[in-house]
Design brief:
Helix content: 25-40%
CATH class: Alpha Beta
Shape: globular
Order of helices and strands: HHEHEHEEHEEHHEHHE
Radius of gyration: 19 Å
Length: about 300
């Protein structure tokens, strides 16, 4: 994938790549809520080819924000949120209860992809949003995902996209191009995370080709844009601050001192030039969804 500015879905790898999912629950929820318009367009696109699924599985669901969007978009479907974090699944179940979906919403805790064998029925639509790349052997995991599809069922994989942008190239202090340099540092972090996964297998991440190799057919690709121009809402501003804070902390060793000082100023609520106050903060993000079908027979 070209970019890795995202939430991660399992605690793996070395000490500098470990992630505490329960601790990140609030951030995961608020980020998914901010991205809700993008997900809504992605789900509407899926509904064109999978109009009435009986069972939808969200593999790597986190706290269930998108799982509940599936329940809303497909009122005739049962939705199962699957994740390795029980605390996040508790939040997913509570959200479904609040929104009135509890009677057709379930959760399944365990490690992907093996936990999918516990599904009572094969899925008509299996959604995996940036969870696959936390599995060491992505090709084997895709095959396992495909095996849990009903004949004619669709696998929808959200991976890749483009780097998110929050600020102009030149923000008036520090060296211009801060976010591009952070992208490069984060890409190195991501590679360390991938190499540290159990059973890690390297290979070209050509998702349509990998879906075909997993035995699926009729691949399709669509990219969806979230464009929140300046001035942004308080929720978007909080998302930017949380995202930059996570990047500063996770990639601290790779960011040079000048850029760290710039980030510190951007994240200081007392500084008028910080993302908490500056009028030029925006959110621009592109997420790519790949689909393929398990052909009957």
């Amino acid at each position: 994938m070209a970019h890795h500015h995202h939430t991660h879905d399992h605690t793996e790898g070395g000490s500098d790549t470990a992630i505490d999912w329960a601790d990140m629950a609030t951030m995961l929820e608020t980020q998914a809520e901010l991205l809700a318009p993008l997900y809504a367009r992605a789900l509407a696109w899926l509904a064109e080819s999978v109009p009435e699924p009986g069972l939808i599985v969200d593999a790597g669901s986190g706290p269930g924000v998108v799982s509940c969007q599936f329940a809303e978009t497909f009122p005739g479907a049962r939705v199962v949120a699957v994740d390795g974090s029980a605390p996040l699944l508790e939040r997913a179940g509570a959200r479904a209860e609040r929104l009135g979906f509890a009677d057709r919403f379930g959760t399944l805790a365990g490690d992907l992809p093996s936990v999918l064998a516990e599904l009572e029925y094969p899925a008509d639509l299996l959604w995996a949003a940036r969870s696959l790349h936390h599995l060491g052997d992505q090709g084997a995991a895709l095959t396992a995902f495909a095996d849990r599809l009903a004949p004619g069922g669709t696998l929808a994989l959200l991976e890749g996209g483009l780097p998110s942008r929050f600020l102009p190239r030149d923000i008036g202090f520090g060296r211009p191009g801060l976010q591009a340099r952070i992208d490069a540092v984060e890409a190195e972090w991501f590679e360390r995370m991938r190499v540290g996964l159990p059973g890690a297998v390297t290979g070209e991440e050509n998702w349509p080709a990998m879906l075909t190799a997993a035995g699926l057919r009729h691949t399709s690709t669509r990219t969806f844009l979230l464009d929140l121009p300046a001035p942004v809402s308080d929720a978007a501003r909080a998302h930017v601050a949380a995202s930059l804070t996570r990047l500063r902390d996770a990639c601290a060793d790779g960011i040079d001192p000048e850029d760290r000082a710039t980030l510190d100023r951007l994240l200081d609520p007392e500084d008028e030039a910080s993302v908490h106050h500056r009028p030029d903060v925006f959110v621009l993000s592109a997420h790519t969804v790949y689909t393929a079908v398990r052909v009957a027979g």
